[in-house]
Input
Amino acid sequence: MADLAIGSAAQNKSAIDKAWGRIVGLSKRSPTSVIGFGIILFFGFLALFAPLVMPYDPVQANPDLILQGPSAAHWFGTDGNGMDVLSRVIYGSRFAFGIAIPVVIVALALGVPIGLYAGYKGGNIDEIIMRVVDAFRVFPSIILALAVVAAAGPSLLNVVLVIGILDAPIFVRVVRAEVLALRSSNFVEAGVIVGNPTRRILFVHLLPNAISGAMAQTAVRGAWAVRISATLAFLGIGIQPPTPEWGAMIRQGAEFMVNGQWWVGIFPGVALILMVLGLNMFGDGLQDLLDPKRRSAGK
Amino acid sequence: MTLRAMLMRRLVLALPLLLGILFFTFMLVRLGGQDPVGLLAGPTATTEEIEIIRNELGLDKPLFTQFAIYIENVFQGDIGRSWISNRSVLHDILERIPITLELLLWGVAIGALIGVPIGLRAAFRHDKLFDHISRSVSLLGFSIPTYFLGLLLLFVFFFLLGWAPPGLGRISLLISPPPTITGSYLIDSLLTGNFDAAGSAFSQLVLPVISVAIISAAPIVKHTRAIALEVIGSDFVRFARASGLPTERVRRIVLKNSSTPVTTFIGTELTGLVGSVSLIEYVFAWGGVGQYGLNAIIRGDFAAVQGYVLFLALFSLLVFIIVDLLVLVLEPRAGAE
Amino acid sequence: MNLRKSLMGVAGAAALTAFLGGAAAAETLVIAAPGTPEGFDGDALRPFTQHVVVQTYEGLTRYPKIMRDGKPVLDASRVEGHYAESWTVSNGGKTVTMKLREGVMSQDGNELTAADVEWSWAKSFAQKRTGNFIARVSNVTGVTAKSKYEVDFTLEAPSAIFLNAITLYVPGIYDSTVMKEQATSEDPWGLKYIETNTAGFGAYKLESLRAGEQAIFVANPNYHWDKPFFDRVVWRAVPSEASRVTLLKSGQVQWIDRPSIRQAVQLQRATNVKVEAVTGRSISSLRMNPKFEPFNDARVRRALNMAVDKDAIKRGVFEGTGTTAKSVVPPIVDGYTDKHFTYDYDPDGAKKLLSEAGAEGAEVEILYSDITPWQETMAIQVADQLNRVGLKVTPKRITGSDMRSRGAPAVQDMPFFTFEDGPIVLDPVYTMYLIAHSKGVSNRAAYNNPELDRLVDAARQELDRDKRIALMDEAQKIWVEDAPWIMTVYPDTMEAMSTRITGWTYYPDEHERWSDLRYQ
Output
């Protein structure tokens, strides 16, 4: 691992080659991660070009088209307000990314520096930080997110912040573990001897080397964020209708299933499963690729 | 170290954690910048009730004193009053614990019965077709939202096929529940020889238990496989293999050495599962602590929310301690450190 | 898809279990509702309180039940004695002496006396809530026991609706013997007790309550009139409407609390379920609070009225049932008029008015709750229509308890929200006083026009029908000009029940009486 860290441009180039080689190897060894990446690309495309792809306005009610089954005009049927389910499912992908990406950024922004610091400083500070991080493990995260969002007020910003904060401990743990392994290595000691300030050592010397384990977690954490925000909306705490968010749509659809109007809830549910599955499959491969522990274990 | 000393040590170590948990539930109603009295009293409170709660909380005092008051109350068993049920939250929760346990334990037991063999087989057939398939299927298990799984099962097995009863609590509305012995309707009705009730309780259990089993099996498969792979890769097993022991013997060694970490994992998994089980309770109107807690969150019954979160944390702590003790019993070496 | 077959299978199995389970004569009615009652005090209405207090508390008077087209209906044009056997009016209409029926026994075995009536009204006066409002609207200022079976009602002025008002469940007549035992110095009226208990003379009493799960009622063993057919009523909380409907279809419950219009229309096709409907007395509305921007400007309120296509709402939300609303007095009430109504659907006119008021592009939230199941759909569809005239409208869900408490007279802090209610006394003056008067308990959105208050107050003292109608005609005109609500539809009242059930009778409070119901 250390050979990746510092050195000449030539070394870096060979590192890139190596990484590329690993990606190619991975796609052979783990086709699931490639499929996962394909699913993410697909939803990413839908999210980016939603206005072009959607056949209808996703929040336009139509009193004369209430609860129509799937047809040529409405592939996924219409919902209880006569809104086009297909358009809503497509638009919903924006919320999936719109939550997953900021959540992971918040969690990284919090977890990585704390993990760096704890690992580097060690001693009591490390002890205290890790105690707090461990304390998070005693709560089921889903319930914790629900309770905090309900108390703080269900706005999109709160949803992102709460899920992001709850996710940070995982990055703290991963980054700290890598820093612990790196701390005694030569280049860090060299940096200290030369008289670099702590901040510089942390972010210039340690961060690039310790970050890969954290990056390996991002896709899986993104999957978790998508799931949990949809759960919030399903319970009616997060994003609210008529906003085309998948969880909120499943909530509405659950009421109609009993009359056989399954399309209102099933389609957004399938989209949600696919998206989360895609992120998880990709994340699984990403962990194989970037996580040093798993890489060696896989040998 | 004796079992008793170990237990004491665990309990002492748990104390700061307990304080942290209490601080969290304490802060929960003070997070959002909303009036904690308003949150705790609920929308139906009268001015007098609000005044009483305001005095009880000591809101004019510094935060630290408020926290002290809160802790004192909690240790006296007073964790507040639910405005929805108008009863003590402690009472509400205690009453529902067996209901949740019935679902959770059946579900995890079946999840483990499915998950452990699959995980082991995947490890033995590492990188073979079975491994890839089981890995993909368990990824699917990780990805399916808990509540959607419940809804889907209800749609297919109740609505389309008519094989299962509607998701509505633990026993048919037409059958009176058995007297409480263990708290599990199924076991209690069998014990009292009430087979109508047992049949109904069983049919009500099937879909929610399958949901919990599926949700719990996915991580069990993943971790069993990882644990077994690690054991297979260990010098010990490599040596056994190299010295030409028959595959069957090697597998038995792997099995034996994986059993403790797998048990530990299933134990700790219980703590995370209580959250998912709450959602399953919600979909199937199961009526346990989970449904109570989610209902409280949805309706803004914050005394009950505090109690629910506290319950979950204590449950996890307890499970961690039990798992530690279990390890000690299974593998006395571990305690020696 | 052999749905029907499978559902009938379930029903068959259920019937079989019922047959095997108990041959005893005890009949149980199982009701599925979104939640359990959150209180049993008619003065402090919480979700489902009203639905159950009408089963446990009854009035001094009642509307006679007659048969029309083979179905029982209430004749709301007449009032007959119930707990009161007879009454005499004296002092120029300002004193009414009620003579109580002897031998009426409470659920706890105490006989109804004048002291109970006095205590119960004193409770309502003290609480200053719903019962106090009923007292005010019918001009009652005092209630005193004259003898064991005689009660004097003192009125500040003669009232045209007094006898109708006392048909209501509130002020409920409590068993004061029991209630006094429950009273404490902090809680002199025993309000804590009736949060989870009942103590009345009505047909049913609460036997047990598991909040959020179920409430069990049993027939009052001492009930003075015919013993109800159902000995037990099991009220189950089933939060999902889909599950409630399923239970009804499968025969596991015999009654569901107010199906949504959409479900009711679907249920009409089910085999073992019947849906009965009557023209209701409610008004579905979106209320604008003039204390808040931009609703402080009457032009904005008028513009919003013009921007909503009520026919589209009727089709999109109410499946084409109900009647388009054009007055705050519903058509079922004497004195209804739609002649002042001027807000036909006119999005361009709405845009023009909004820009005149400088409110184009205003951002507003529509608060809605689950008190009636179609609120969400209505909020969404109205929001969509308002967005089309350039506003930025977001629907936002709050809990039913929140909605009720924030609409209470002392609070009224919601700027814009959906609500549905209507008069339980089918009288125009009562309606206007309830909904439009600044002191009305169902005002909820701080609407206040002194001129309208004056007309209503004058009419409350008036006994002559034509004069009252004329006053209310003028009040309806002011209301339409002020446009404090977007009225949408007068929904039909629909009840869905097992085909075995018969005897359902419509009451102006829109709640069935379990004692009316029986198996065919």
Remarks:
- Chain B touches chain C at residues 42-44, 48, 82, 84-87, 92, 158-162, 165-169, 172-175, 196, 200, 285, 287, 291-292, 295, 298-300 (CB under 8 Å).
